[in-house]
Design a protein that fits this description.
Length: about 525
Amino acid sequence: MTEFYAHSSKDGYPAQTYQQHIKGVVDNVRCFAREAAIFSVNDGNLLIDTSEIGATYHDLGKLDQENQSVLSGKETANILPVNHADAGTAFLMSESIEQMLPAVAVYAHHKGLPDFVSESIRGESMFRNNKTKELVDASLTKYAQIHEELIGKVLFPNASFPKGDFSVFLRILLSCLVDADHTNTASHFGQYPTQTPNIDLNPSKRLNQLDNYVAKLGTQDTERSKLRKKLYEDCRNAVISENISSCDSPVGSGKTTAVMAHLLAQAARRGLRRIFVILPFTNIIQQSVKVYRKALVLPGENPEDVVAELHHRADFENKDLRHLTALWRAPIIVTTAVTFFETIASNVPSTLRRLHELPGSAIFVDEAHAALPASLLPVAWRWINSYADDWSCYWVLASGSLNRFWEIDEISSSPRNVPSIVSEPIREALSGFEIERVEYKSTLTPKNIDELIDCLQKYPGPRLLIVNTVQSAAIIANYLRNMLGRDCVEHLSTALLPKDRDKTLERVKERLQSP
């Protein structure tokens, strides 16, 4: 029997046969789709069926004779001579209109999701590659016969269209297929971690761990300490039945641990599998990750396996850990709003690959009203609702001064109850305390630098001077150093490298601890 290949040999690894690859991808996609489908309210079975059909036929075009000449090593080429996604798309579309979903996933598994409006006006060429259409149509029966001999006969389920948001479903479907495809290929060529940590969220155990951690903090008998403790208890014990809630609590009130306690309690009650913490700045992410790794890791666990830190400045013990973090495999993921919302909005396979890990998650979005430009909030709110109602996600939208953007008619077409996880008396008390804790001083009279320094010297305690350019900050900091000495001033701006800003922040923290 003639051998057919899916990938050529490389880097000392043998060629991967078509049969090995298809069966491996189908096994992977079953696993990914079933895990996500558990959390689907209406479309779980549809996701399983369509992703398996897509996986079965995604590489059908590789059976073309010209492609096999390259894949077997008889000929060399940078790319396959015949677009290999076109055959699977054509075959599924020829079966029935019900197979349109897996057909689109096959079409998009390298190219990315298309513009449906542009495709709809292409008539019979919709979702097809015009350069190879004629050749593929003439050879389609032959491809299907070879495929059946290698893989076996496939029974097509009675598919339908999703009851939930179509664009969200299609992205999750493509995510399952792309991750299954890439994982199998990478595994064959030794580019996927041989041992992947499979760590459960275990929310109840981690909540107990967090309770113990917080109990050891705040031993001071101050009003602020009491309020922070009350906020923690409020959030931890909040009874919320809605899928979207809010947390309006000022900076410095202990949201890092309080909201995490709430998320763990909700995850335990709702049977969720993962927690996402979406923060606005990398330095805040780094601080939060340090706290979470101290407070949430159970005995015997590697902190980096449990709490994944995903942003451009994150350091990793090894490349395997970076790879698995990027795929959202950890039970707790801390990342930026840009990374998170780009993923759920993307049409690019490499970015969408991790999206199927999102269903069944608790998601904390800090500075929620500023996480995206205002023009993007309407579509983001639609996605947040879809993941909440269709894919069992639980959201906490938080801020130090929360703008309830979902109550704006232009953003939300229908009203939705978004309860607060913090009681109003505690929120007001914390806000009042914060106003007393920090004094804001301003003067409208223009000053030269000496007058500005004299003005600064009038006030007691730690002072933060904010100016409007990096150059002004550097000049004033240098002037203060020369006038008062190095130990009287710190300079923090983007004139410094990130590593030097980190050192400066650490120095500020140390100095604030000193009387």
